[in-house]
Inverse folding.
């Protein structure tokens, strides 16, 4: 049997280790061609998926306002089982067209009056808004069904599905001051609610009208702001010119609360 030269024997001993080292280098650097581009078919580690969610703000439950005061017995009645959509991809901002000079401690009583008007005079099954925000920035649960769930509201004719209604307690026509605490609360609520569906508050969404009395004929798919004014979908000046003018800033704040740049 011929004798293997010592240098060749040493190379054969080291060869497996060199192969392993080469594989490690390829895995770390990536398989690239001479131009530095990944070769087709190479395994590339995917980027981490970034989700933009926001913290849930404090929300006062409806039990705080729905079971008090004999002036609104219709608000205290038990609503029928709620209806749900698959998710909420847009929020509509409203004002309640009620006085602005209230004490924040009176907000539950005011909400009872609003609910009484909607369930009594209008014969709705429950208050239409999903949430209400007072001048001090306190957020109240409106329509029953669970604040974290996609409850179908009755706040924007033609566009109640896959949306939530946020009502600012007061009247915010041109020249009316809008409290910063109120707009901050609307931004926080919208950031959380839209974040559940990974929706950017500054973007647009596609919604299908269910009623021709809206701005869009029934069955029409419209492109609307994800954080919209009531007037974007219905022929109304709601939420008032003063609050409407602040919506761009509210969208930006909501986006920042979701961690967007």
């Amino acid at each position: 049997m011929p004798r293997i030269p010592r240098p060749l024997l040493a190379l054969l001993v080291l060869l497996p280790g060199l192969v392993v080292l080469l594989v490690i280098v390829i895995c770390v650097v990536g398989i690239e061609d001479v131009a530095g581009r990944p070769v087709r078919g190479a395994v590339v580690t995917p980027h981490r998926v970034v989700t933009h969610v926001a913290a849930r703000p404090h929300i006062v439950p409806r039990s705080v306002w729905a079971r008090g005061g004999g002036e609104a017995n219709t608000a205290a009645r038990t609503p029928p089982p709620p209806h749900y959509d698959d998710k909420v991809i847009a929020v509509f901002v409203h004002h309640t067209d009620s006085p602005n000079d209230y004490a924040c401690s009176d907000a539950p009583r005011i909400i009872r009056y609003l609910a009484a008007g909607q369930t009594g005079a209008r014969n709705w099954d429950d208050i239409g808004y999903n949430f209400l925000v007072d001048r001090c920035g306190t957020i109240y649960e409106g329509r029953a069904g669970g604040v974290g769930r996609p409850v179908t509201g009755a706040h924007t004719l033609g566009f109640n599905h896959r949306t939530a209604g946020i009502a600012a307690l007061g009247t915010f026509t041109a020249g009316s001051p809008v409290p910063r605490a109120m707009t901050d609360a609307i931004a926080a609520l919208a950031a959380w609610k839209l974040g559940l569906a990974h929706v950017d508050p500054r973007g647009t969404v596609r919604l299908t009208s269910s009623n021709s009395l809206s701005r869009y004929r029934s069955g029409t798919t419209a492109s609307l702001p994800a954080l919209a004014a009531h007037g974007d979908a219905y022929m109304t000046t709601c939420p008032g010119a003063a609050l409407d003018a602040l919506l761009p800033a509210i969208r930006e704040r909501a986006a920042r609360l979701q961690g967007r740049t």
Observations:
- The chain is about 30% helix and 15% strand.
- The radius of gyration is 29 Å.
